[in-house]
Design goal:
By secondary structure, the chain is of the alpha+beta class. The chain has 2 helices and 6 strands; from the N terminus they run E-E-E-E-H-E-H-E. About 15% of the residues lie in helices and about 25% in strands. A hairpin with a 2-residue loop joins strand 3 and strand 4.
Length: about 130
C-alpha cells in the first residue's frame, strides 16, 4: 500500500465462501511525533477509493482494521509476520470468514459492488 497516511500495512488473504478469497488489510496510521497526523477520517471506503486508482477492484481490501498504539504482531524469529495468528487475533478469522461477519474494530465491505469508483475494462465483470 502506497498511501501517505499509512506507515505500516499488512495485506492478508482471507478464505471466503462467496468469492473464494478476499484481502484483509491491517494498517498503522502515520504519526507526527506524539500526535496523529491530521487526516480526514480513515475508513475502509477511503482506503479503497485511494487504492482504486492503481489496483483492480478485486485486489482492493474488503476487510480493514487499524492498529492501535502498542499493538504488536506475531512474528517468526526472523521478523516475518505470521498470517494465521494475525488473522485470528485482529480479525477473529480461523479458516473461512464466517458468513455473518461482525467484529468490533473491523470494517467489512461485504459483497457490494461500488459503482461510484472509477472502473476499467477488466473490472466490468460482464456488466454493460
Amino acid at each position: 500500500m502506497n498511501l501517505s497516511y499509512v506507515s505500516e500495512a499488512y495485506v492478508l488473504p482471507v478464505l471466503d465462501y462467496e468469492c473464494q478469497g478476499l484481502a484483509a488489510a491491517l494498517i498503522r496510521l502515520n504519526r507526527l511525533g506524539d500526535e496523529e497526523i491530521n487526516h480526514p477520517k480513515i475508513a475502509l471506503r477511503k482506503v479503497r477509493e485511494d487504492l482504486s486508482l492503481t489496483l483492480e477492484l478485486y485486489k482492493l481490501p474488503a476487510i480493514l482494521r487499524i492498529l492501535e498504539d502498542g499493538d504488536e504482531l506475531p512474528q517468526t524469529a526472523s521478523g516475518k509476520p505470521l498470517k494465521k495468528p494475525i488473522l485470528e487475533r485482529y480479525f477473529q478469522i480461523t479458516g473461512y470468514r464466517p458468513r455473518v461477519y461482525i467484529v468490533p474494530g473491523v470494517e467489512f465491505w461485504g459483497d457490494e459492488i461500488d459503482k461510484t469508483m472509477e472502473r476499467r475494462a477488466w473490472d466490468w465483470e460482464g456488466e454493460e
